[in-house]
Request: fold
Amino acid sequence: MITGTGGLLLHLWLVVGLSVLGAALLMALIQSRLLAWLTCFNVTAKQRFLWCIALFPYGVGLYAATLVLTPALTHEFLSVDHGHLHSLQGHFHWFSWQGAGVLLLSMIAGWKLLTMLWRRSRQHHQLQTLLAFSEVDATGCYRVESDIPNAFTLGLLNPKILISRALDRALTADELDIVYRHELAHQRARDPLRLSLFGMLISVFIPSARQELYATLELLIEQQADAEVASQFCDPSTVAATLVKVNRLALRYQRHALDFSACGFCTTAIEARIQQLLGSDHGRAFPIPSFLLSTFALVAVGMYYANSLHHSIETLLHYHP
Reply:
């Protein structure tokens, strides 16, 4: 048995971990409806909603931690006499379901951490290998000696634009300019870093939900880059035509994903990107007032029921030999 601060921290780890996983499972169950509802919004609003979905489990975990650590909040805001932690002052028993839960959560967290470090190491090695077989032009773009027509942006803190020599030879100067501007938009927005962070956040979701969320954000990021390039030309159809041409060239080769957080010119749904470019209705903006009002309402409800929720957590974690 562990008592004192150590016991409290183990209880806290169990509460936060179970809360995060439970909230992630809940979001996965309603994810399809949420994504279908997002179709009426524009690209920027959809991205913000996706980040809200990814952050929601951690918000629930933070709220659960607040219930465990500071039950006196109910006394401060609602005049409820409750200012100590009762059974959560320590007394953590390893030979119980709580101990098994802590061990399981620790194993899951350790596996996720090792997987993330391996992917980051792989990405760094992949980038260094590609740069070793590339030459830098006057614009800072790396020309890769490859027979596969492709263009992509790779790297987290200092992303690099890479365009293969095969694509360089297959496109006209204007088409290459469109491709370069597209990848430059990714570079300026640090999109590989955004994808990497998003992938880390949604790692607590079940695999099917995680893949769908990541693919959705990847498509939205590509659509955002497409729109930025299209805004620089009088006719967006020119960008769409270049996208179709590069896609046809890439279809001749078997596609391999460069990395979990690489932004390639032809790595997502081409049809949806063309529809976004040529469509006239780009959707509604992010409803900031409604979002803030909903958040305030949820916080108010949570504070009102904080006392009973804290007692429920105490009862759940109280060890009965």
